[in-house]
Amino acid sequence: MILVDTSVWIPVLRDQSGVLVADFRKRLGGKESLLTRFTQLVLLQGARTEREWRLLDEYLSTQDYLECSDRTWREAARLHFDLRRQGKTVASPIDCCIAQLALEAGVPLMHRDRDFVPIAAVRPLKSLWWDPPSLVSESRPANRRRVATR
User: Fold this and answer.
1) CATH of domain 2-135
2) Among 150, 143, 138, 144, CA closest to 20
């Protein structure tokens, strides 16, 4: 299982060429994708039409979700606190919640969000940066280098 962040879902769901979807499936490697309710919220609120809302809501209702517990909220707050004390910032505490859910479930987090980079520096987050060919030209975190493959 792999927790997939909104930063991956948005381009995958908007892909009309099939290139991103194929790369996403390849990267999953046959593993099941998991979502958070934060992802569900962001994807649904971004629907452009009533039809898109219905289709997306129907699709999302069939997905598996990691749910927050009381512990998740406390540990996510602690993570944000620890980052701030080390001079590292993340744009949203929601990213700390998403990372904490991945940590609790022991699953990797696939994303395209720079905020997870400092989180992975202070917690044992298994971070998978999704870098499909058609999005390579977009900027990537400073500590991410393109690795040549044969």
Assistant:
1) 3.40.50.1010
2) 138
pTM summary value: 0.87
> Residue 48 carries which side chain, given as an amino acid letter?
R
Q: What is the dihedral sign for C-alpha 105, 92, 134, 47?
A: positive
Tens-level pLDDT at each residue, the chain (150 residues)? 999 999 999 999 999 999 999 999 999 999 999 999 999 999 999 999 999 999 999 999 999 999 999 999 999 999 999 999 999 989 899 999 999 999 999 999 999 999 999 999 999 999 999 998 776 544 444 444 333 322
CA distance 74 to 118: 19
Judged on CB neighbours under 10 Å (0-12, 13-18, 19+), 136 is exposed
Where do the domains of the chain lie?
A: 2-135
In three-state secondary structure terms, 67 is: coil
Residue pair 100/76 in contact (Cβ under 8 Å)? The answer is yes
